[in-house]
Design brief:
Helix content: 25-40%
Shape: elongated
Number of strands: 0
Bound molecules: flavin-adenine dinucleotide
Order of helices and strands: HHHH
Strand content: under 5%
Structural class: mainly alpha
Number of helices: 4
Radius of gyration: 24 Å
Number of domains: 2
Largest sheet: none
Distance between the termini: 63 Å
Length: 125
């Protein structure tokens, strides 16, 4: 039954778990409270926070924590074989190209896939 689920269980998924926990606390809802015990006005307070909360970002994590770099060789300057159109015989792969993705394996996959292509075609040349 949905009403037996805790507030944390019920709401996690719509937003990131850590953000859900913070907003629930701000709305005065304990994470372990079953949904059926939460007064409607508190649920409205939670939804209002979800819709209207404005955050002022003061800083990001330091460079030492960076996981991917943006910028690099323009992909319009390489062939599907990963060979440079500008400098024939040079093959690129991975982060040296101007390709970056969100965290979640996309950058590693790009490095492996483009590395395979570049190596394969360089060996054929
Ligand atoms: C802490 C951290 C966590 C990450 N987590 C994830 C993740 O969870 N998922 C994801 O998808 N991506 C993640 N990434 C990004 C991902 O690891 C990179 O996008 C990917 O490894 C890039 O591969 P690459 O081969 O292009 O470059 P690199 O892996 O950086 O390889 C370049 C290599 O070239 C060598 N090199 C540099 N200069 C020279 C030189 N002059 N001569 C010879 N060799 C040289 C370097 O030593 C290095 O071994 C993470 C990155 C970091 C730093």
């Amino acid at each position: 039954l949905q009403g037996d689920r805790t507030a944390e269980e019920f709401f996690t998924g719509m937003l990131h778990k850590k953000l859900t926990a913070t907003l629930l606390k701000m709305a005065g809802i304990r994470l372990a409270t079953p949904m059926k015990e939460i007064p409607e006005e508190k649920i409205h307070a939670y939804y209002n926070l979800c819709r209207n909360l404005k955050l002022h970002i003061t800083e990001s994590n330091p460079y030492e924590n960076a996981q991917v770099s943006a910028g690099g060789v323009d992909v319009r300057e390489i062939k599907p074989t990963m060979e440079s159109k500008i400098c024939p015989g040079v093959y690129f792969a991975g982060e040296i190209l101007d390709v970056d993705g969100r965290c979640g394996g996309y950058n590693l996959q790009w490095a492996w896939s483009s590395g395979y292509l570049a190596g394969y075609h360089a060996a054929l040349a």
